[in-house]
Request: fold
Amino acid sequence: MMKKINFIDIFCGAGGLSFSFKNRKHDLKLAVDIDKNSIETLKKNFPLIKDKIVNDDIKKIIKNTKYNKFKNKIDLLMGGPPCQGFSTANRQNILNDPRNDLYKYFLEFAKIIKPKFILIENVIGIKNKAKDILNKLENLNYLGDFRVLQASDFGIPQNRKRVFFFAVQKKYNAKHKIKKFFSLLDNFKIDCRQSVLEDALYNLRSLKSKKIKNDRFNEYYESGLNVEKIKHYKSNSYLKNINNNKKIKYIYNHKARYNNPRDIEIFSKLPQGENSTHSSIKNIMPYKSRNNIFKDKYYKLDNKKVSKTITSHMKFDCNMYIHPTQSRGLTPREAARIQSFPDDYFFEGTISQCYAQIGNAVPPLLSKYLCMAIEQIND
Reply:
């Protein structure tokens, strides 16, 4: 019989990491994030445990003695400290960005509650801090290691490489458990069916870009609705997987944002898989004199390949995420599907805030495999 995992999710975001642990009947004891919209999203999707979902700052959490009650009672502490300071997409790559130190507060909380296992997710750039993280874990009496995991290896139609640290208290046969954890993940990859973009976009209604700029509060059928009832939901193997074979009655957050006429023309002319340097848009490309810098300012996704990495940059624009067959950027629902969120997962906030939550999340399908690996070593 599977042993239930008691877990805490710090920097929980919209719940991508927590989702599969909850879905597999494990016990969320606490979820914390400083972003109010993410917390509202989590509460919306987990209404029965609203009291365990907290909108707060990790710097305040570690000073609040009420959380001492979790000491030696938590199997897993997990989370993804905000990573923009480490991101390779951050061209300035600011080494003294204060967000670079948030992992230290995460480890300080680990010192307080002493969980059996620790799981940390972050962007590739955090490898520069790997030695410091592993040394700090060692000082807390943990043995740790890390791997770079590629989302597409786990059946997610997205090129998304992220670093995962996994640590175990030394008294729990740590070396063996860490080795088995990563070995199990390697084995899971073997059985995963590969998916491409068209698998994720399957059967979503065609939309047009919103026509009115800064029109936040009105909805139009042609540009999509926040909540839309579905009469005949058609599925495929990828959608059955992310929806856990549930019958879907509503599609959420499938709304196209505003685009100006020039961008719509670029979207329509650019072939799939091509970027700003393509000849089809050379006469209308606004940054053509700086294509060496802005070559991916516009990029049309290819239906037959995995998507490029879904990131929080989408909160600004979706010009790098042009729909392969429609003259617009991806909707939040399309981005969420590429991230493997189920169709009945609702995101709270403005369309920009939804994009940010989705782009920052751990893909739930990947978190399922992380959960399955931990289940097998949680004895």
